[in-house]
Specification:
The structure is a single chain. The protein contains one helix and 14 strands. By secondary structure, it is mainly β. The strands form three sheets. Strands 2, 3, 4, 7, 9, 10, 11, 12 and 14 form a nine-stranded antiparallel beta sheet that branches. A three-stranded antiparallel beta sheet has the order 5-6-13, with no helix packed on it. A two-stranded antiparallel sheet has the order 1-8.
Length: 129
């Protein structure tokens, strides 16, 4: 079950962005798992586009980021999570994952970058068949 306000589409449930992080210091991965370390993440700066706006924008240069959702997921089993077409068509992507909870997801931004508004719909949990 998804918590928070979501938009249902024919494909599933759209998820909204709560935070975008920059990787500030590298993590560590070893062959046995005894030396794993998380990367240090810093929230990416947001700016106002217009003073009358209710929400701010992230201005992302080409690169790698970590995406965090407003929603949470509970239940049994794994559900496919994929990038929305609108985001992909504008030069960004994240891997399709099968999730039982909503982790932070790596976001790749190419080319000239991308501007994302707070609470924008960026990913979809696919409907179960």
């Amino acid at each position: 079950m998804v918590h928070e306000e979501t938009q249902r589409t024919d494909a599933g449930l759209d998820l909204t962005v709560a935070e975008i992080y920059e990787v500030a210091a590298p993590g560590r991965v070893d062959f046995g798992g005894g030396e794993l370390a998380d990367a240090d993440l810093d929230p990416h700066e947001r700016t106002w586009r217009n003073e009358d706006d209710d929400y701010q924008w992230w201005h992302l240069d080409a690169g790698q980021y970590m995406l965090e959702y407003n929603e949470s997921l509970t239940g049994e089993g794994r559900i496919p999570l994929q990038i929305r077409d609108a985001v992909c068509e504008r030069g960004a992507s994240h891997p399709t994952l099968h999730v039982a909870e909503l982790p932070r997801v790596p976001l790749s931004v190419g080319g000239a970058g991308l501007k994302i508004k707070e609470n924008a719909r960026v990913s979809t949990l696919l409907a179960e068949e």
